[in-house]
Amino acid sequence: MQRREFIRTSCLLCAGLLIAQPILQSCSTVPVLKLQAKNAQIIVDKATLKPNQKLHIIRNTKMDFDLLLVENADGSYHALYMQCTHYSQPLAANSKQLFCSAHGSVFNFNGEVLKSPAEKNLTKYIVEPSANQLIIKL
Ligand code: FES
């Protein structure tokens, strides 16, 4: 292989890996629960949560974007609205963070911006636990 051809091929491979990185990050699966909002709340039956999963996506037809239900280290929960605060694009989640494929913003599971261009934190919802349910207050 000629030196010039080697450099060209290597550069194309590196560019491809950079482009594929966000896509590969989104491959890790977060379970999705389809539930309906009613009376400004969403009720999650604890029995429907996957065991040993700290994250669940809550999908419902009354909201434009999904919610990410997060179990904290102390066993409490909160939910994040998966709408990027930069230009309102949907966010994806993997086991480490939420990210926006539009322009690359990254958020932690507390909803805080880790990487711009987004500057504002995500909308966060209180989750009230009961014996068998989690109630997301919208
Ligand atoms: S819309 Fe998400 S980073 Fe721009």
Offer a concise description of the structure:
By secondary structure, this protein is an alpha+beta fold. Helix content is 17%, strand content 31%.
How would you describe this structure in keywords?
138 residues; alpha+beta; Rieske Iron-sulfur Protein; seven-stranded mixed β-sheet; four-stranded antiparallel β-sheet; 1 helix; 17% helix; elongated; binds FE2/S2 (inorganic) cluster
Provide the low-confidence segments as ranges.
11-20, 22-27
Quickly give the structural class.
alpha+beta
Instruction: Give me the CATH architecture, please.
Output: 3-layer Sandwich
In CATH, the topology is named: Rieske Iron-sulfur Protein
Domain module count: 1
- The CATH superfamily bears the name Rieske [2Fe-2S] iron-sulphur domain
What is the string of helix and strand elements? Answer: HEEEEEEEEEEE
- Please tell me what the overall shape is: elongated
The helix count comes to: 1
Protein described:
- The protein is an alpha+beta fold and 138 residues long.
- The chain has 1 helix and 11 strands, in the order αβββββββββββ.
- Strand 6 and strand 7 form a beta hairpin.
- The radius of gyration is 18 Å and the shape is elongated.
- The N and C termini lie far apart (61 Å).
- Bound molecules: FE2/S2 (inorganic) cluster (FES).
- FE2/S2 (inorganic) cluster binds next to loops.
